[in-house]
Amino acid sequence: MVGTLALIIGLSTLIFTVVLSLFSSFSFVTLGILVVAFNILQWLISPYIIDALYRTRELPENENPRLHEIVANLSQKSNIKEPRLMLAQIPIPNAFAYGSPIAGNRVAVTTGLLKTLETEEVEAVIGHELGHLKHKDVQLMMFVSLLPALLYYIGYSLIWSSMLRGQREQSSSGAVLGFGFMAFSWILSTCRRI
What we know:
The protein is an alpha+beta fold. It has two domains: about 1-50 and about 140-194, no CATH class; about 55-135, Zincin-like (2-Layer Sandwich). It starts with a helix and ends with a helix. It has a four-stranded mixed sheet, sandwiched between helices. It contains seven helices and four strands. The chain has helices spanning about 1-20, 30-55, 65-80, 110-115, 120-135, 135-165, 170-194; strands at about 55-60, 85-90, 95-100, 105-110. It is elongated, with a radius of gyration of 20 Å.
């Protein structure tokens, strides 16, 4: 876990170094402030970003009492605080655990999962997700999952800004750099799944 966290912080440091160098604003103080602020802010607000991306909402107990009972029982058996139960309106069967000190821990299930699996299978999936909360995998995954997305959007922005600039030499170098960021984010997200 410490090695992965060091890799993620190292990659964000590299990215900020490249960006600051491109804008001729590089200094170690600026770099240090940006890296620390970015990683702490990302860790704290990432659950809200995930809620927005997956359009999750908190699942009231009266809407699915059996699922709330499963989460409560498994949380008690795992000796962890019961997380907030979230529902994502996605037809693909999936579940995921996420959280931060500000947002608290959450477990989300998709409508596809609830429609596809039997109750015992849903219980096994929830147990797996609660295991991630118990072993603090959630905090690490917040860093790992959002960094490729950030790189992709930086690359995307560089491509569009270079195209809109209209200057041929600057445009091509910005586009190459943008495609480089996007390719690197794809490689990073692929490695994360292995």
